[in-house]
Design goal:
binds fe (ii) ion, Hypothetical protein af1432, six-stranded antiparallel beta sheet, about 375 residues, 2 domains
């Protein structure tokens, strides 16, 4: 198949359907090309296959579900040679479809619309979990035209397939109007179905990740409530430590998994007190066991493995004093631990009702001794 010399679009006809540039080596205007010889047909199939794999590769290396769905929509248009596409997802109560991705100028208008399951073409596909090809919507009673009247797009033909993951419907995908006015084929249906499978997997993965995050957030809350309950005056300590620690981490331009580790470690830094019920949590700066206990408690949780190491050293000072005494000092101590140890010391002083100015003076005087000088300077800057 020729590739447009202007926009790169691959097409079968005498001129590019996207920008109108004539096909290379084509002198024919406004007429379909003659059927290609067998060798050329094989090349076309290879090119189509290469295009498909390139698109699949691009989709599977994208982790953000919105980007995956946008790529699936534009890939579906490109590979089925159609004018528009949309992806609708099933809402939580399973009664309506809502537009997640829609191409064209009015795409954002469509994202506000809902389609009841069972109504219209998309609703029929959702209700029956069956793909549907309609070559002429004007003679199909299921076509309501409601979406066209909102978008201003004139639908002539539709190919719509269900998005199914683990035998459950998650939405539908559709492409509209073949660019050359021809009929949708079984090949088009197979292409859209294959692409939709990637979309369905991405949606289910995103839901699982969000479910896990929700689970962890709640487990964290239960854990912190459990050990903060040791003394009412301790209430909120863990989240205060997390707030200040992550603020310092951001100033240090720490991002990604390192940033998450610092957040998890800061929230759970005193979790070891659960194993030390005979101690008041207010003694935490003198209780030498809780960092090790906390480390032991969470080191086998894959998600928290790196955070566990930070918890272990959250009472180790920059000069190597504090605990556990393993000979680590200065930059050999993980940066997350250096941050939390300063924040823990600040919070200790607040428990002792030190005025903020006195806390700042102490941090200043211990810069480079008990506290990492860079982290101390950041604290002094953001606490002004
Ligand atoms: Fe603490
Ligand atoms: Fe602690």
């Amino acid at each position: 198949m020729p590739k447009c010399t202007n926009c790169g679009f691959i097409f079968r006809y005498d001129k590019c359907p996207r920008c109108g540039t004539p096909a290379p080596q084509s002198g024919i205007k406004n007429a379909p090309a003659a059927p290609p010889p067998l060798a050329q047909k094989t090349d076309e199939n290879k090119s189509e296959l290469n295009q498909f794999f390139e698109i699949v590769c691009s989709i599977t290396t994208t982790s953000d579900v919105d980007s995956v769905l946008k790529k699936v929509g534009s890939a579906a248009e490109k590979l089925t040679l159609t004018m528009a596409s949309s992806i609708m997802l099933l809402d939580d109560d399973g009664k309506n479809l809502y537009f997640k991705v829609a191409s064209g100028d009015k795409g954002t208008i469509l994202t506000k619309l809902k389609v009841p399951v069972g109504e219209g073409i998309a609703g029929w596909v959702a209700a029956n979990k069956q793909p549907l090809i309609i070559q002429d919507v004007s003679v199909d009673a299921r076509f309501t035209g409601k979406i066209d009247s909102e978008s201003g797009f004139k639908t002539k033909s539709i190919l719509c397939v269900p998005l199914i993951a683990n035998d459950e419907l998650v939405g539908v995908a559709e492409v509209l109007n073949k660019i050359d006015g021809s009929n949708f084929t079984e090949n088009d249906k197979a292409i859209l179905t294959s692409l939709s499978n990637f979309a369905a997997v991405a949606i289910v993965n995103a839901k699982n990740i969000s479910g896990q995050q929700n689970f962890f957030a709640n487990v964290f809350e239960i854990l912190t409530t459990a050990f903060e309950a040791n003394d009412k005056r301790f209430s909120g300590h863990c989240f205060k430590v997390a707030q200040l620690s992550t603020a310092i981490a951001r100033e240090l331009n720490i991002t990604g998994s390192h940033y998450k580790d610092i957040y998890y470690a800061a929230v759970l830094h005193d979790v070891g007190f659960i194993a030390e019920p005979e101690y008041s949590i207010l003694e935490h700066s003198s209780n030498r066991v809780h960092p090790i206990k906390g480390y032991e408690m969470i080191k086998n949780i894959n998600l928290l493995k790196s955070a566990a190491g930070l918890i272990k050293y959250h009472h180790l000072m920059y000069d190597g004093s504090g605990f556990p005494a393993e000979g680590l000092k200065k930059e050999a101590i993980p940066v997350g631990s250096r941050i939390i140890s300063l924040v823990e010391a600040v919070e200790d002083m607040r428990f002792s009702v030190y005025p903020e100015e006195k806390i700042r003076q102490t941090v200043e005087s211990q810069k480079g001794i008990k506290f990492d000088p860079v982290i101390a300077d950041i604290y002094l800057k953001i606490s002004e």
